[in-house]
């Protein structure tokens, strides 16, 4: 790629990584979760952790953020935080959540790998740490079966991804390159037309025929299937052991340094939530859907919820080696200069919690803070 093209792409990505997505986030950086039960559930007379009145938690209204959805709905976070209120904000995309973390509007968040990488690199390693894992999988290439019957038929078609430079966009561009096809990363033009379309709009775009398919996370993939699309490829099949990070837990470095006990309480609640989800999948699925209804006013129908839920693996492991690979894919696509990710992880508190719970510790793939 010529130097001027590469610079233009990186500038475009930088804009995306810093915009607060005014068109998507109606209330500041993110919409406050419409659940006012947390205050009521703060135990009367309970001790505040680190003297904090509240811990501000961010997440997306996606099933790939099931830990946060279920932990909120079932009160796991509030239980561990005691007299400190768990306050929630719901985001539509990673850039707005990173901006909220940087501004102090949230303290801890559930987020995808690409915005975590972008946020860390843009701040020269000073803004955030990844402190835990949450989910693997839940991303699929779904297509119009009348137009695309095999993987080779994707060439020449219009395929949607959620956003330029987001986790699924990077994955799709990498897959295209592996097929030997050429696409300009910035414009999305080439042997495949990559159409950046917000997940909320993608089902309507599919129904109108303006796209032929999409490389998207759940539940958008299953929404498209409910409209007649077919799953052509599950991204998990492209990864060793069929595992790759789709959701991590991040914290601002300032908050981590000043309030480690609060961070430990949230991570303990996350581990407890994940244990409960994996032991009670049907109840957990219902709880996640109930929280989606609270947050958005609309729950998912069974024909979308059930297949989407099955494709997501809930895990405490941040799958650090796959994050490093995803960063390499972004570099290969021309969306990122080779990043220095040393120090992006601090899994010390998580491993302390896991050890206390008798669970195996997790690895930072050599990218841990010193």
From TrEMBL:
PROSITE patterns reported for this sequence: PROKAR_LIPOPROTEIN
One Gene Ontology cellular component annotation held by this UniProt entry: periplasmic space
Cross-referenced CDD domains: PBP2_NrtA_CpmA_like
Cross-referenced Pfam families: NMT1_2 (PF13379)
Signal sequence annotation: 1-25
GO molecular function: ATPase-coupled transmembrane transporter activity
Subcellular localization(s) per the UniProt record: Cell inner membrane; Periplasm
InterPro entries for the chain: ABC_SsuA_sub-bd (IPR010067), NrtA/CpmA_ABC-bd_dom (IPR044527)
Keywords for the protein's UniProt record, in alphabetical order: Cell inner membrane, Cell membrane, Membrane, Signal, Transport
Similarity remark: Belongs to the bacterial solute-binding protein SsuA/TauA family.
Protein name as it appears in the record: Putative aliphatic sulfonates-binding protein
Species per Swiss-Prot/TrEMBL record: Streptomyces jeddahensis
Record lineage: Bacteria, Bacillati, Actinomycetota, Actinomycetes, Kitasatosporales
């Amino acid at each position: 790629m010529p130097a001027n093209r590469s610079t233009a792409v990186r500038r475009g990505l930088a804009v995306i990584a810093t915009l607060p997505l005014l068109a998507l986030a109606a209330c500041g950086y993110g919409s406050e979760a419409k659940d006012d039960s947390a205050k009521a559930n703060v135990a009367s007379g309970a001790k505040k952790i680190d003297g904090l009145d509240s811990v501000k938690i961010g997440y997306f209204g996606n099933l790939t953020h099931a830990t946060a959805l279920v932990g909120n709905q079932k009160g796991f976070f509030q239980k561990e935080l005691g007299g400190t209120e768990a306050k929630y904000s719901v985001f539509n995309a990673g850039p707005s959540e990173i901006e909220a973390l940087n501004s102090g509007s949230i303290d801890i968040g559930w987020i995808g790998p690409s915005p975590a990488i972008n946020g860390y690199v843009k701040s020269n390693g000073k803004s955030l740490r990844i402190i835990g894992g949450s989910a693997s999988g839940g991303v699929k290439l779904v297509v119009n079966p009348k137009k695309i019957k095999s993987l080779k038929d994707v060439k020449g078609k219009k395929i949607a991804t959620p956003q330029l430079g987001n986790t699924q966009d990077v994955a799709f561009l990498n897959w295209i390159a592996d097929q030997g096809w050429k696409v300009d990363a910035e414009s999305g033009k080439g042997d495949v037309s990559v159409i950046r379309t917000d997940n909320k709009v993608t089902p309507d775009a599919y129904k109108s025929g303006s796209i032929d398919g999409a490389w998207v996370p759940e539940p958008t993939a299953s929404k498209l299937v409910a409209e007649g699309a077919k799953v052509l490829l599950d991204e998990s099949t492209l990864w060793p052991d069929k595992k790759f990070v789709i959701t991590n837990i991040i914290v601002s470095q300032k908050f981590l340094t000043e309030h480690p006990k609060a961070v430990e309480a949230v991570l303990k609640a996350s581990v407890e939530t994940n244990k409960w989800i994996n032991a009670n999948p049907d109840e957990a699925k219902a709880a996640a859907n109930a929280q989606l209804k609270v947050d958005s006013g609309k729950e998912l129908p069974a024909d979308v919820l059930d297949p989407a839920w099955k494709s997501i693996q809930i895990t405490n492991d941040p799958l650090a080696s796959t994050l490093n690979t995803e960063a390499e894919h972004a570099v290969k696509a021309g969306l990122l200069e080779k990043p220095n990710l040393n120090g992006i992880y601090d899994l010390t508190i998580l491993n302390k919690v896991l050890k206390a719970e008798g669970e195996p510790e997790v690895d930072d793939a050599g990218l841990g803070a010193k």
